[in-house]
C-alpha cells in the first residue's frame, strides 16, 4: 500500500499494518469530532510516526499513485477535518 504524507513524500506500507493504522486513524477522527486540539495533536503525531516507522520511503524520482494521503505534520485540526471522509483519513 502506498501512503503519501503531504510535504514529506510517499512510503510503501505493509498491508498487514492497515488494521493498526486504521485504529490510529479512528483516534484522529474521534479527536476531530470532539474538537480536542491537544488530543488531536497527539493522535495525528502518533499516526504519522507509525506510518514513517513501518513504511519504506519511495524515491522521489519514482511516480506511484497513492492509495491514500495523510496530512502534513503541522496541520491544524480544522485542516485535517476538511480532509476526512466518514471513515477518517484511511479508507476501509
UniProtKB/TrEMBL annotation:
Name of one Pfam family that matches: PspAA
InterPro entries found in the cross-reference section: PspA-assoc_dom (IPR054437)
Domain of life: Bacteria
PspA-associated domain sequence ranges: 1-92
Entry protein name: PspA-associated domain-containing protein
Organism annotation: Catenulispora acidiphila (strain DSM 44928 / JCM 14897 / NBRC 102108 / NRRL B-24433 / ID139908)
Lineage of origin: Bacteria, Bacillati, Actinomycetota, Actinomycetes, Catenulisporales
Amino acid at each position: 500500500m502506498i501512503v503519501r504524507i503531504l510535504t514529506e513524500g510517499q512510503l510503501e506500507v505493509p498491508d498487514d499494518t492497515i488494521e493498526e493504522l486504521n485504529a490510529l486513524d479512528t483516534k484522529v477522527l474521534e479527536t476531530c469530532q470532539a474538537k480536542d486540539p491537544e488530543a488531536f495533536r497527539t493522535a495525528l503525531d502518533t499516526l504519522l510516526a507509525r506510518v514513517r516507522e513501518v513504511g519504506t520511503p519511495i524515491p522521489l524520482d519514482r511516480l506511484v499513485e497513492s492509495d491514500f494521503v495523510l496530512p502534513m505534520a503541522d496541520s491544524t485540526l480544522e485542516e485535517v477535518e476538511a480532509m476526512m471522509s466518514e471513515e477518517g483519513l484511511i479508507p476501509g
